[in-house]
Amino acid sequence: MKLTLKIWRQKNAQDKGGIVDYPIDGIEPDMSFLEMLDVLNEQLINKGEEPVAFDHDCREGICGMCSLFINGEAHGPDRGVTTCQLHMRMFKDGDTIFIEPFRAKAFPVIKDLVVDRSSFDRVQHAGGFISVNTSGNTIDANTIPINKHDADKSFDAAACIGCGACVATCKNSSAMLFVAAKVSQYALLPQGKIEAVDRVLNMVHQMDAEGFGNCTNTGACEVECPKGISLENIARMNREYLSASLKG
Amino acid sequence: MAQSAQLNASILKKVAMALSGIFLITFLALHVSLNFISIISEDVFNEASHFMGYNPLIQYVMQPVLAIGVIFHFVMGFVLTAQNSAARPISYAKYNGAANASWSSRNMIISGLVILAFLGLHFYDFWFPEVAYKYVNGTAPDATRYYGELVHKFHDPIRTGLYCISFVLLGFHLWHGFGSSLQSMGMHNKYSRFLSKVGYGFAVVVPALFVIIALFHHFNN
């Protein structure tokens, strides 16, 4: 395959940055998108140029590290996959492909296509946990009976890998799907109900403080989420927040 | 330590936007019902309009509440849009919004601005003359004038066209707004899915009735 890549290049967080064109040839349709970028970087290094910086880790669709906004969509045109699982067969020979970093005020660019997603960590630190006594007499979670329906819903929410595709694809840069998944995974379980009021108030407060936008229910986040996190979680978080507002 | 809920929290703003939207949807249902009478019976329309125009509860309680609801919905819409724009200071070079969200959901501010412009025209046509008639000029009540005033406004094809275009955009606004308000208030179950379908019907039928009323009076008189 012969392609034209339009890649966002930015030396550092202070640099203004801009789109740079890279023609590339010899790309196999069965290559993953990241392998295609590896080929490009090898060519750039051989020419003595700076390789394109991009995030990646497990390359198995598990870690959520690879980001990239490809041809106007988070993780590219495929559905239910991260960028590492996106294959070049999704594109046609001769295509022009735009590759940009995830854009949001709360996700500042560090270099090229690498963004700082530590705002998600701070939201998680604000309440995305349960307090457990680990002094040696911890009770096995399996001893607490849990409704199968709730357990499944909680597990579905817990499948969120925190990749940030929801923020990147939302026209408002809203992090509601991510925060809602983290709130829901605990809100549905008996262990999580004890700190439910504090959790939702603190996490939403931190989400707002990080500068994410407001959700307008376009549903784009659900479509682009590689783990299929449902909008149902946002509705649940809204209920949890309203309930906590009255109690807290 | 827990944060307390704040009035400017994003979720509370969403809920406030949803509640004001539901309130305005209810008003629209009432408005279209009253207007539709005008194509059935001139006398009944005059009678109903006169009742609305001189009933103290409607004039001094419902009308101010409606005005507050409209102003709140628009102001909050602009505030949220400004905040959302600030949340992405640098735009994408290529953004394929159509790949994952409907036009109506992505362009509520555009349909909202068209509705705001329409309200300006609508107030100029009906509300300001009504206020002048009753409170500035102090003219004696006339229960037979309403139908004539309505029909007179739809003589002009440009005004009729502007009204129809605005109603189409109102339909797009309602198409997303109805279901979105349920989601914002935390509803996401079989009942909200059913109500959302009712909302899609409302988003088509109500603007269509407004268009029919406007065209009826344009071509019939």
Automatic annotation (TrEMBL), chain A:
SUPFAM superfamilies: 2Fe-2S ferredoxin-like, alpha-helical ferredoxin. Its cofactor is [3Fe-4S] cluster; [2Fe-2S] cluster. It comes from the Bacteria. Gene3D superfamilies: 3.10.20.30, Alpha-helical ferredoxin. GO terms for biological process: aerobic respiration; respiratory electron transport chain. Coiled coil: none annotated. It holds the Pfam family Fer2_3. GO terms for molecular function: 2 iron, 2 sulfur cluster binding; electron transfer activity. Residues 151-181 form the 4Fe-4S ferredoxin-type domain. Belongs to the succinate dehydrogenase/fumarate reductase iron-sulfur protein family. This is Succinate dehydrogenase/fumarate reductase iron-sulfur subunit.
UniProtKB/TrEMBL annotation, chain B:
InterPro entries: Cytochrome_b-558, SQR/QFR_C/D. SUPFAM superfamilies: Fumarate reductase respiratory complex transmembrane subunits. The chain crosses the membrane at residues 21-40, 60-82, 103-124, 160-178, 198-219. Keywords: Membrane, Transmembrane, Transmembrane helix. Signal peptide: none annotated. The keyword Ribonucleoprotein does not apply. GO terms for cellular component: membrane. NCBIfam families: sdhC_b558_fam. This is Succinate dehydrogenase.
